[in-house]
Specification:
The chain is α+β, with helices and mostly antiparallel strands. 34% of the residues lie in helices and 37% in strands. It has four helices and six strands; from the N terminus they run αβαβαββββα. The strands form two sheets. It has a four-stranded antiparallel β-sheet. Strands 4-5 form a two-stranded antiparallel sheet.
């Protein structure tokens, strides 16, 4: 992963992510499935000019969907929980 924009796909907009952002100063992003924690940390630090304390990732499996009699699956994706450093917590509220 060379390009910053290919690592971070966008924010994860869920109720759980909003609660983590308000209470703990954590930010949740959808990331490229092959991106590792080091690449994610560098991408967030360079793109948003903040200090990242910790990164946790989880692989989300696609759900089974049905349209009529045809069955398929949505794509698998990866989610990253970004813990910001102590002085950067105000940034989480600005996103």
């Amino acid at each position: 992963m060379k390009n910053l924009y290919s690592v971070l796909k966008g924010p994860c907009l869920t109720e759980k992510a909003a609660l983590l952002q308000e209470d703990d100063g954590k930010v949740v992003f959808k990331v490229h499935p092959k991106a590792n924690k080091i690449e994610i940390k560098k991408a967030v630090e360079e793109m948003f000019d903040v200090k990242v304390a910790h990164v946790r990732t989880t692989n989300m499996h696609g759900k089974q969907k049905r349209v009529g009699r045809h069955i398929g699956f949505t794509d698998d994706w990866k989610k990253a929980y970004i813990t910001l450093a102590e002085g950067e917590i105000n940034f989480a509220n600005e996103l």
